[in-house]
Gem-associated protein 2
Amino acid sequence: MNCYTEDFEEYHEEEASDDDYGDQLDRILVPKLPVANFDHYDPSRPPVTGEEYLRRVQLEAQKCPEVVVANLDVNQFTPNQTLIIENSNGFIRAKPESTPSVDWQRAQVSEFSHVRTSLARMRAHRPPGTAVDPIADRPPVRHRSMSWWRDYCIGKRSDHSSDSDSDRGGGGGDEDESDLSTPTDTPHNSSALKREKRAKRESNLPLMSTICALTQDEVIVLLSFYAKWCQQYRFTEHFGLWIYALLVALEKPLPAEVYSTLRDLSRVCSECRHKIGSDCDSNVLISLNLIICIIGRYFDQNDMCDQ
């Protein structure tokens, strides 16, 4: 009983102390000086009283910018400068004849957001364990190297292959060995070899089942691979399909290194667009503009947008 009484008294003491603190706070917030009413203040007339003068100072202070930069001639320091930092981020803006309109960019971002929502809804409504992995019969994830993904996405010996890969035999060693080991003196063997070469050249499309089977780590890795492939090979509409699908599957929030990959990809796409100019295939140009638009406007890389 005594313990209960002591606890009850301590509780009331704490409550009383809170009330005292509130009273002290109210006394502190009480204005000590009268505040003038400036409802009828005319700033065009010179101040007559001290209150009007303070009001004039307040209005003039509001017009001053928060940051003021001095206009100095820095050319005199140029000979003494030892480090030059470029402000350019490497992004090449589109030429006037290739620049997409702002309305087109907004429409593409809206459609892209709708596609991402549809993909997320499809993943959420799919019962667990029913997803079909179209690449499940391929090598395990830990054995899927960059060359394996290149063969799967863009084909082993497609028209994207570079001369350096041909010289090294990269991605085409199996085809060269088949040419040497398979006799071609009969029509049957010749047609079979052509079918084999055609199968090796075939690439895979980014189907919904394939994209849903990819993990986030694989999506990020593939985006980094495409940033390199766009520099090594000729950009085609097939590249645009894969990059768009990977961006749809990319889940937010993103770590800093993924934003760096997206910026590299946008920078490379701007270089490809600058090289091909306006004489290229319209679908290729639209694909490049679409990728740059999505990375810049949807993923908030505003300094790498076509204004």
Notes: The chain has twelve helices and no strands.
